[in-house]
Amino acid sequence: MSEQKVQQQDESQLVAARRAKMGRWVDDYGVYPWGNRVDGLVSLAHARSQFDQTAHEAFKEDATNDARPVVKVAGRCIQHRAMGKLTFLVIRDDSGDLQISCSKAAMPIEQFKVASKLDYGDIVVAEGKMGMTNKGEICVWADSFELACKSLAPPPEKFHGLSNAELRYRQRYVDMYTNEETIKTFKTRSLIVSTIRKFMHDEGYLEVETPMMQSIVGGAAARPFETHHNALGIPLFLRIAPELYLKRLLVGGMRKVFEINRNFRNEGISKRHNPEFTMLESYQAFGDCETMLELTEGMIRASANAVGDASAIEIGDYVINYSKPFDRVKYGDLFKKALGCSMSDENGVRAKASELGFGDAETKNHWLLASELFDGHAESTLDASRPTFVTDFPSAISPLTRPHADDDTLSHRWELFVADMEIANAYTELNDPDLQLQRFTEQLDGADDEVNAFRSLDKDFIHALRVGMPPAGGLGLGIDRLVMLLTGMESIRDVILFPLMRPEEQETDAT
Fold this sequence. Notes:
Helices cover 35% and strands 23% of the residues. It has helices spanning 3-29, 44-49, 53-61, 109-116, 165-170, 172-178, 180-202, 243-252, 289-307, 331-339, 346-355, 366-378, 433-445, 459-468, 479-487; strands spanning 70-83, 86-93, 96-103, 123-132, 138-149, 206-207, 213-214, 226-229, 234-238, 256-264, 276-285, 313-315, 318-320, 327-330, 388-391, 413-418, 421-428, 472-478. It has an eight-stranded mixed sheet, sandwiched between helices. A hairpin with a 5-residue loop joins strand 4 and strand 5 (138-149). Helix 6 (172-178) packs across helix 7 (180-202). The longest helix has 27 residues, at 3-29.
């Protein structure tokens, strides 16, 4: 018999034993194994904070002088030790762990018997005085104990935590209660998002919502997910970006808008890419990319301060200081330093691409070639331990960006890099309808790849620009990647509660 089948057989036997125990509790003690509403509960962290050393010492001196606070708590059993007339267990909730001490003399016998025979993973409710054991462990000395939910599935690896990475992502609900760091990460994520939201509100931005199903693919260069609306009989796409809708709001008169949104891109999965991801996009009328730069630096610094010491946050081999001003470098300067030629020197770019083994070095658009060279060979020369804005991107790869007045090959665009990751992208937005139409048309005329095959001209957006969009700055910032940076996680799957996974090939036993 294979090791996997032996493991499945063992788990089936454990499940059967738990079911049998549940049946005995129902028959012998009248236990309802699925629980009911419970009022008056406090978190385990709050309960621990209620421990009163003075009251505890007074009780030890005189048991009739019992001023110890009473708490009611609930959690999942993660440790258990029965010692005759005493039973000790540790329960866990999203605030931490706390010991529950049960004495046979202090509670109804049926409740004590349940407590003494508890399984790891069972969810319980306990009420009693906050005290301390003889070994100095702060605990609840329970005088009331009940089962809130019987766990029929045994915890992984004898409750030493779910360590298999794939299982952690597939069974996040198990990962969360067996690995304390997991809940900590997602509480930090929530704190980061709420900090960003407050920061944006304080800066006068209005939070809005735009369509997630769109009839025209726009706002970024990415392959979309396709769907179909039956009632209207039309194809739709899950949005790859909300950009064009948010800009319409500027046309309508809103001055500062932002959206913390879900985007969907039908592309590969890696440590830094998930097909469904969270972005912040914001736009400010009468702003520019410099406005967005200042906004971004302030927002990230506020988020870093919210989660810890902004001057020293670790991720991998890097210690990032977010409290200092971020660095800046021009795209063209970085390109020349890394590749030895100017990005505007077509012959030099093609020669360098040939030297580096690019098979299409003689035929590909010169600016697209320069972009690929930059991504593959210049970007990596940045100091990964220093947040750096790379500015003045080529206009040819920035179709929604306003070009420089004195050199239209350059655009008012920057990207922010930290720890070898692109975190944010910002423009001085293009609001010239004729130039935007030209850019869109050029994009469509060159549509010979799989991504561009889904594109079509958004005529309504061009019309909106003709109505008139004020000059503006726009920003897109990756929330998932920012959370990675500020929690020290090196895989995007560790900061997304339910990352996309390939379906398990083998059926599971739903005994």
